[in-house]
Fold each of these.
Amino acid sequence: MNDAQATPGLSISCQEVVELVTDYLEGVLDSDTAAEIEAHLVLCDGCNIYVEQMRATIRALGNVPVSTLSEDAQAELVRAFRDLRGPTASR
Amino acid sequence: MRHMRSPKPSSEPGPDHHVSARLAAIEPPVIKPPDIKTDDSADVPLVDRLRAGEADAFAEIVRAWSPMMLRVARSYVSTDASAQEVVQDAWLALIRGIDRFEGRSSLRTWMLAILGNLGRSRGVREARTVPLSSVGPAQDDRPLVDPDRFRGPDDQWPRHWTPVGQPRPWPRSPEEATVAAEGRSLLAAGMAQLPERQRRVVALRDVHGLSSEEVCSILGLSASNQRVLLHRGRSRLREHLELYYAADASAAGDRGVGT
């Protein structure tokens, strides 16, 4: 084992971090590997930026436009709810 | 509501669906116990409000959950119009069946189980035969990050970023870009380029905020397959943003603005 492999954070390569980033963010890595990635991120600007960009991408996906039921359909569902469940509904 | 992002839905004019007609037509659903477990029982007040007949509480969850439910329903059926009907039927089933909700799962998980039952039977009737894997780009074997951006195996720091290959910080966050009007379609365009399976997983997980367990159950994926698809999809979208920012920066350079 050479020096690089003995130093925490350097036994894992950037290319491996890029492959493991989702498992890391999902929290499914074993604790040794997760700790190794954390140590790597302290030392490595490139990977730090990469992981932060993955996080930013995930956050931004929450702003992607989505479609939903028409206002009319939603209003009609609420009317159905009132008719069947509302205080005055006959059950 | 827990787990849910607040979606910014755009109502789509769709075919005219008459809820009252559908309501008369459908039988009260046979609801299988959900096969997904989630953590919470925090919906109890919401359930109580629904049982008490509070229309506001119902309107609230219709608004919050319908976008996610439409996306889920679209996994089972072949057209947007069918998906809208399945979602409406699921809401009607909830109206009829809320007294039978036993609180062993979250209300949302229960709703997803109803939606899954209705969607699957509708999909069978439509004889939806297009297998997931046949839609979209067939192959996705291009590396997620260009291998040339890493040092070679014989380098002092094998497989670490090269100085040129190392990621550059983005000039502004993609969140800012995507809430701004001109950037709204940026990630949507990136998603459209993903293979179908990746797009579905990313949409349900990251756009609609479902849990990995829920997505595995809806799409019939193993946990590890779900993660692989999520990983490839997210990595591609990060790349999409990186290319956008790089193009933006060089355009700004051409115009003599920026740094």
Note: Strands of chain B lie at 9-11.
Amino acid sequence: MSLRWIMHVDMDAFYASIEQRDRPELRGKPVIVGGTPEGRGVVSAASYEARTFGVHSAMPAIQAVRLCPGGVFLPVDMPKYSQVSRELMSILHSYSPLVEKLSVDEAFLDLTGTERVHNMTVEQVGWHIKNRICDELHLTASAGLAPNMFLAKLASEMRKPDGYVVVRHDSVSQFLNPLQIEALWGVGKATSKKLREMGVTTVGMLAQIPEETLTGKFGEVGRHLHQLSRGMDDREVVPHSEAKSISAERTFGQDTNDWDFLETTLLHLSEEVARRLRDEGFHCKTVVLKMRFGDFKTITRNRTLPKPTCVTHTIFHAARELFALGNPNRRKMRLIGVGVVNLVKRQEAQLGLFDDAETKMEKVETALDAVRKKFGDKAIRRGRLMQ
Amino acid sequence: MNVICTKTDLSTGVLTTARAVSQRSTLPILSNILIHANDDELTLMATDLEIWIQCIVPADVKSPGSLAVPASIFSEMVTSLPDEDVSLTCEDNRLLVKRDPSDYTILSQPAEEFPSLPEVGDESSFEVPQGLLRGLLRTTIFAASHEETRAILTGALMNISGDRFSVVATDTHRLALRAKKLPTPVDEAISVIVPTRALHELQRILDEDAESPVRMSLAPNQIQFALDNLTLVSRVIDGQFPNYEKVIPKEVERKIIASSHDLLSVLRRVAIVARENGNKALFTTQGDRLIIQAESQEVGKAYEEVPIKLEGDDIEMAFNIQFLIDVLSVLDADEVVLELTGPLNPGVLRPVSQSASGEDDDYLYVVMPMQK
């Protein structure tokens, strides 16, 4: 039995790097994706140049503008990033069938035994993957190769960007022991404070504490801490990790109650969500609408559909109705979002006797997806979404 | 109320009626069976407001009266009594079940709270032999959908026109249709969608060899099936049944004829593997052999051969094996013919013996394939 080898691949400043790749004039500049120069919205990604100013993802754009007034703010171009993501995943899949996608730009691969398939050491397989991402996508990734998922993820974070850290089976404790306890997955403020009060600051020190002492103090979390401190993690890489929900949202440059514009935005978002559903081979049972008003009050409304769908139009109709009900006084909106939950796998193999309008529409939209995949997202669009 | 009846009659009535008792109702009264004694009859009734079953139990009525008793307790008690006469007496809101020397008291509810049996008039009604209706139901209603999301398909479509009575059920992947000739034509054509839950109950109740017919009566929202001692009323499903006629293939390119017994036993074995792979099985003809295979990553592989008579070219296609097992399990035919056109076109299964009974009995089962 060969040794277990797990690789974690994490793209560096994914959205921002794609923009810099496609627009050479932005290279070397602080690029901030998501949010507007007026300080609306939330930062989705920041280039490494922007990060030197302290800008990071999930930060309110208003704060990013203050920290980095010279930043180039760009809107999120999700269809483009999704396309690059698909290319990335197909590279990863050519090295191992066991690829667990965590998000658009992050995945685990189980490389156990692949040295024989690729006729090189596992460490070399890792280099190969990294180089192919660089050659084919013109983007950099940080990678960690280690005996399990927990260590691989920790390793990939060690030398960002463009890093590659390998933790060998006989050097796990060497790698872990000097780390601060906060590096461990699941150690937040409260746990860290308690541990530090116990005089424990590094992972090495934590590993010395008997399991019973930790479980006595932290319960189930204690057992978890004990295992991580010794570099133990037996989670398996689960290929095609099934999404539980899919959503998309837009923050507006200015609060608005322009109904036509809002409905068009809902259609945009519904299309984005439906397309991802179709891509991943799911149907959804429930549509969720998220609304944030000018005063930041945020509400969500949901509707369960008569039958599961992945049709843009059906999702849009539900979202539009929820919107009309959720905002009867036509108040100004700051953000709207469309999400789908209760996902079920699409039953494709069994053919149906009656093709209802919904099934036909699903076929049309799947065909449109194929056109877009081949000729780009702008090749074919709904009339309402043309600008 | 005071009545005396035999244990056998009472327990038959209680068990039949109890099948209509609501399993998950918000109305507590619906977990009861209504007992009602008048002049010389004892009637039992239960409902979940979707179906109603009322049963007449032969009894010696000393004094009339009524009340509602908890169905589960009452049926358990009645069925466990020895085979002798039982006396039922109502006192306030308690039912006394006596059989010397035993004496039980069951806390009950006043009958007034119990919803009454919907009145379905006789204006639109006709009689059907029990065996005929039972045959129609047995070979069709299994194909209906179990998904509540499409209410229409949880019912079966009954079409009665002239002397032709047909029942159709589909879950959108397969469709069963059977039509029989009525001994007496009806005056007025009827088309109604009845929940298969009610039809399953009706099928249990109908007696293949009974002399007496079942009287069907239709009201705008209900349908009633009346037998000598029993009445079943069901709500009907409102809406448009899918246009099933257009999905019945008009042309046939090849026919596979096989012994239904041989085919069924082979399918049941292959299903052991196929069920781990979405019930998918591959059907390949090679001249006078039909090869049936299934494969599952978790279980392994299955391979079987069945001798057939093939008219037309060889074909390879996949079916949900359960869909074929379902139909072969209910058909009374020595041989069946499977008519196929292409790997992605619907297949049609019919009993071969059909021609023997002439045009009085038509059966067909349309089944969509799976992608290979």
Note: The mean pLDDT of chain B is 92.
